[in-house]
Amino acid sequence: MRASDSSSVLLAAYPARLRRRHGAELITTMAEAAGPTGPTRADRWHLVLDGLRERFRLPPGRPLAVVAAVLALLVGGAIGAAAGSWAGMWTYPKVPAPGPVASQAIGSDATLEADPAHQERFWSSSLGRLSPGVDAVEAAGRARDRLTAAGWKTTSVDVSGGTDGIHFRSAAFYAEKSGVHLTLIAYYSDDRLVEIDGWSLRPPTYVPFVLGGMVLGLLAGWLAAAALTYRIAGARRRRTSAVTAGSGLALLLLPAASIYKYLIQYLPNQESYGLNEFVHRALASSPARSLADNPNIGPIWMDSPWLNKALVIAGLVAVAAAAIIARPGRGSQEPVQPVDPQIA
Amino acid sequence: MQEPTFLILTALAAQPLHGYGIIQSVAALSGSEVKLRPGTLYGALDRLADQGLVAVDREEAVDGRLRRYYRLSDSGAAALGAQAERLHRHATAAETQLRSRPGLAGGAA
Question: What's the DSSP call for residue A287?
Answer without folding.
Answer: S
